[in-house]
Amino acid sequence: MLHYGRYYWDTGVYFRALNRSRVESMGYTSGDAQFQVGSSVYKDKTMNSDIKVLRASDSNPDNNSVQEEPDNIAATPKITWRSYVWDTFDKSPEERRFLFKLDAVVLSLASLGYFIKYLDQVNINSAFVSATQIYVLRFFIGLAESAFYPGMQYVIGSWYRKDELAKRSCIFHSSGAIGSMFSGYLIAAVYRLEGVGGFHGWQWLFIINTVISLPIAIAGFFLFPDVPEITKAWWLSTEDIAMANKRMDLEGRAKRGTYTKAKFQKIFSSWHIYTLVLLYIFFNNGSGYGSQPAFSLWLKSEGYDITAINTYPTIASAVAVLFTYLYAWSSDTIFRGARWPPMVFAGAVNIATNASLAVWDIPRGWKWASYILGSISSGISGLTFAWAHEICGDDNEERAFVTASMNELAYVVQAWLPLIIWQQVDSPRYHKGFITMVFISAALIATAFVIRFLHRRELARKRQLIEW
User: Fold this and answer.
1) What is the DSSP string of 312-333?
2) What is the rounded distance in angstroms from the CA atom of residue 172 to the CA atom of residue 152?
3) Taking residues 247-253, what's their average pLDDT?
4) Which of 56, 367, 373, 401: CA 20 to 30 A from 268?
5) Where is the signal peptide, in residue numbers (predicted)?
6) Which range, 57-61, 179-183, 365-369, 413-417, is most confident?
């Protein structure tokens, strides 16, 4: 059965209104279209006999039958104490099996890929070759890896629901910190291989990294599933694919569309792109000392040997991984999907540690603590992307464009900011750098609160429309 008539559109939800002036007065655009009835989300839901709500994904002009959908997925995920351990424990057996396969492939490939990305990055920085060779090699490495992180975050946001999203995004992100930590031990080990087989130690780094990376790349080629509506992954059954699409429908995650002039106008007229990009710029440039080896340089200035300089900073990486998991689990469970509380906490810790290092003449034990705790804000990256997926979830093109812009523009800023505030001549005190981190962290907290306010207002506006 198909409905014909005038429908009203806003961020992926259509409204059929008999009282046209009431909806148009709120600024919604209208258009003639046909829609299939049968959404399990808004099925036969009529308010005041004049507005019928249908999901954008219910549009199906070429099919006159309602496709049977999986009935073993809860519209609102059940949460008991078991979900505080792992979110699949409260789901149906069918959904647990599906998520096990999804985690085994998507999450594993994402995490392993990001792990080896950081091995590549550290290897380049450690290679004792001519400057020209480093720049050329770094260019091609960067060209290959630049799209990996935002692309994987987009794919993760295309498969997982809100109660699952932060954990997967943060597990993926933490693999980078694990890669950095592992690289410290690897560098310390290959330092002893200097001259073995006629190779320098830095050459052994690349050999070992190739042995680790190549199997992961080959596995990704054969296993990676794309996104639910176009996947042809051999390891997913027809029922799995139907379940994946139903789960995204329940989340309001829109399917792929096309980029048009009107689409770009909509994206750039929304607060989403400006605030979320700003949030990620503050995160990316305000955590981990602007990607500078501040901890290592301080250890070097204190006279520690090469092994200590390469291994002690891995303590900070390990603590960062631990806090990444704490942020993810607390956001998905204790804070019931709220992403901003861990961001505020991380920003506050950043202010305290960087202000202490800016003073510099502080007790030695507190200086160690400041360097070790100064990296824990890096764990909120996954939360920023999870928040973006949820805020932009009902417009696929906006979600893709915004998440890509977050990553891209953050690194555009990172390309020049360290040249100003993390100058080598200031090492290891970096007074300008530490002071700047304090202000960037305060801006991160303020931006998180602004996004929280705007998002709540937007959700209230949508609820008001549905209640009419």
Assistant:
1) THHHHHHHHHHHHHHHHHHHHT
2) 9
3) 88
4) 56
5) none
6) 365-369
Residue of 444 and 148 predicted with greater confidence: 444
Question: Where in the chain are the domains?
Answer: 2-58, 91-235, 254-468
**What distance in Å separates the CA atoms of residue 272 and residue 388, rounded to the nearest whole number?**
8
Phi-psi region of 11 (alpha: psi -120 to 50; beta: other; left: phi over 0): left
Number of residues assigned to the chain: 468
Question: What token pair was written down for 242?
Answer: 């139907």
Q: What is the DSSP string of 114-179?
A: HHHHHHHHHHHHH--S-HHHHHHHHHHHHHHHTTHHHHHHHHHHHH--HHHHHHHHHHHHHHHHHH
Tokens of 293: 């080896």
Per-residue model confidence as pLDDT tens digits over 306-335: 878 878 888 988 898 999 999 999 998 899
Say which CATH superfamily domain 254-468 falls into: MFS general substrate transporter like domains (1.20.1250.20)
Our CA dihedral for 51, 56, 61, 66, rounded to 10 degrees, sits at -90
CB-CB contact of 440 with 307 (8 Å):
no
Q: What is the pLDDT of residue 137?
A: 62
CB contact at 8 A, 441 and 350: yes
Tokens of 155: 């794919």
Category of 5 on φ-ψ map: left (φ > 0), alpha (ψ -120 to 50) or beta: left
DSSP characters over 35-51: EE---TTTTT-EETTTE
